[in-house]
Please model this.
Amino acid sequence: MKKLRPNSADVAAKVVDGEAILINLSNGMYYSMDSVGGLIWSMIEQGHDLGDVAATIERHYEVDRDTAERDVQALARALLDEGLVVPSDGGSAPDANGVQLPPAADGYAPPQLNKFDDMVDLFALDPPLPELSKLDGGGTEDT
Amino acid sequence: MSRLRDDPPAREPRNPSDEIEAAFRALERAYAAAAKGPDPLAVADYRIAGYPVRTRIAGRGLAADVDRALGHLRAGPGGRPALTIEVWDETEAGPVDWPGWPGDPDVYGTLSVSPDDRYLRHQRQSSVMVLDRAESRIMGCVRGRDALCLDERARPFHRLLAIWLDERGIQFIHAGLVAHERQALLFVGKGGSGKTTSSVACFLDGFGYLGDDFVGLQKVDDGHFLGHAFYATCLIDADHARRFPALLEISDAANHDFEDKLVTYLRDHRKDGFGREAGLTGIVLPTVVDREETTFRPATAMEAMLALAPSSVGILPVAGPNALEKLGGLVTAVPAFWLELGRDVDGIAPAVRRICAHLAAHIP
Model:
């Protein structure tokens, strides 16, 4: 597994203070990740491949490369299994030096994908529709 | 009240036929005929989230019900409304000559979209509402007031209103909102967290009231966030209402056996103290604890996000990858607090006032 991208057709995500929240709009499952997971998600969103991600974690948290690669791959598999990302076939990689890093003083812990299923019933009854197209000739305002 | 579909609906956006527009046109013809009849439509003007909205309702009783929920947002007539909502009550005004009641949706209804995305139809068991996005017009029909579900009575038009306002930068969120002096606090959390208890306790204590379940969230140019009031109602368990005897006197029973709450019309308790909008200064996460007194402590932005976002996105009729953007901005900009609710409900409002005092003292 080399590169992933968010499954933006079904997933809404946001990184808040370095931590990530993700909601699968098709089934109501939602997820959180702490600061290491938030960093990994941010880099996936920005188009970095998983090798870049592991290298950044190795440098920033001063963990060995094998640990960084193993943990990034494990989280990537979990994200794939939950339908939160899809494989990506490339595209140019952005500069890893531009990544906003959380404080290293927080320390390193293997990233976990925390799952919550208490909204599943609500979404099963009434899932939100995908976004609507803009109408020709107005009728809507810029949001 | 929950009744799961055997096969949950997919996020299928488009209705393959043009039946949605046909329903809209049939209702339009009914209104044109009614306008020439002897019993004029009940017309009322409101200002909802800053927008002038006019309702034209065929059915005096239904119009009065709608006004019980929205009356605090009344505005003087004048000018062209930004949104017109026209609803026909077949019990009061007679049957409409239209294609009929399509399908058999479950209690929460079915939302469908015309092939060109212009019309959205929300089909319930006893009501049909169609939004014409191009003309900013909602056209609807109900079988009768006595057939409506609790949320249709407490929050008229909420599904289509949410879509219309979202396109204008105002997002429906799942939250309560009260105001005290210069502070405006959102109560956020899932069902059972104590959100309604907190909102109601503050309302009965004299706080300004802007909502219990649904509030409009708007980011304004200076980076601050406004909360907009929608409905002066709440839905509350009958057992729960007994903790607030004043509420029982202003609550109506459900129309259906499968509904387990009461609809409470808060303006029947007092007419003043209902705000239209407020600049948000705090986020409160109620949680029930096993002790007598109620206290508060700081919460992180992610704790606020986890309490606010899933159910807020769950109530959105339409959502895409950016559904969390505004919520993320809010929890980053506004401080959050856990409100640990003790058994003594009389202690809730004083604890919320202490949060207000803390914000006034510590937040510029």
User: Anything to note?
Assistant: The CA atoms of residues 12 and 23 of chain A lie 5 Å apart. Confidence is low (pLDDT under 50) at residues 138-143 of chain A. The beta strands of chain A are 4-6, 11-16, 19-24, 30-33, 85-87, 114-116.
